[in-house]
Amino acid sequence: MKYRPLGSTGIDASLLGFGMWPIGGTQHAGDYGNVDDDAAVAAIQRALDLGITLFDTAPAYGNGRAESILGTALGKRRKDAVIVTKCAVHWDYAKEQWVTTSNREAILESAEQSLKRLRTDHIDVLLIHVPDPDGSPAGSMAAFRELVDSGKVRAVGVSNFTTEQLDAYRKHGVVQVQQSGYNMLDRRTESKMVPYVRAHDIGFMTYGSLCHGLFSGTWNSQTSFPGGDWRSKGDVFGLPLFAGDNLRKNIAIADQLKEFARARSRTLPQLAIAWVAMHDFVSTCLAGMITPAEVDDNVAGVDWSLSLAELAEVDRILAGAAGTEGADHYVVK
Fold first, then answer.
1. Residue 184: pLDDT above 50?
2. Which of 32, 61, 169, 182 is catalytic?
3. pTM of the model
4. 20 to 30 A Cα–Cα from 141, which one of 120, 158, 174, 246?
């Protein structure tokens, strides 16, 4: 495993991070599907064995389920892990919907609940999960300062923010980590976010390395999603990658990439992870994993160094992808 500094946090983390969203399961709309708890625990422990140290979770992943599973799996190995969790998004049982609230009180309460579920006395990195349109940057950052001063949180940051939103929060304190989507079909962060995090020494965590399942190597022309699966709507964080005919076209692209990887005795997930991990602005690239076998496969992607000729061939294949409007073309850096 390779390790990189997480911005100015003083934390070194595994280049491949364990994404916990799929492990959240099916509680409430928006998740991935059923996950076996025992298999999930085994996957987390296998990840530790192979050198993965960073685990990214959130209260919203199964309404606390993913955090609880992580706490159980880590057990006495908590010291070997960098736990990243989030705040500001919770399930409102009265309204039966997700609610975003990032005021001081909500953040403090969320952190306390996460500490209990994770069975730990501190969170390594706490992120605001999504921007709160009615939030107060001053109040959010005040809560962060309290948590850091108390020793309950080591470092703080945000997820899914724009550079303008980062500016607003940085006026009231230090934002140490930003988390954004980034993969072969979603390169929107390259134009503004990447220069921003570099300029301000902000750790850059990327999610969606496998394009939310497209690059898992398991989809085919018959693939579809149940209504409770967030991907059924076709929208992938603002890109229509799975909408209408785009899904079939992009599965065909994934098939071509799978053949490219197979010709090199590699797998499609390994290619997807290798592509993200090769960028030096990425502190940690997250991939969802729910079984030990997936962990074994994904870890091998970190050590694959793609040549310039291979990158050019990958880019040629990706040129046929659909629904990537707004994503920047790859430029070798």
1. yes
2. 61
3. 0.92
4. 120
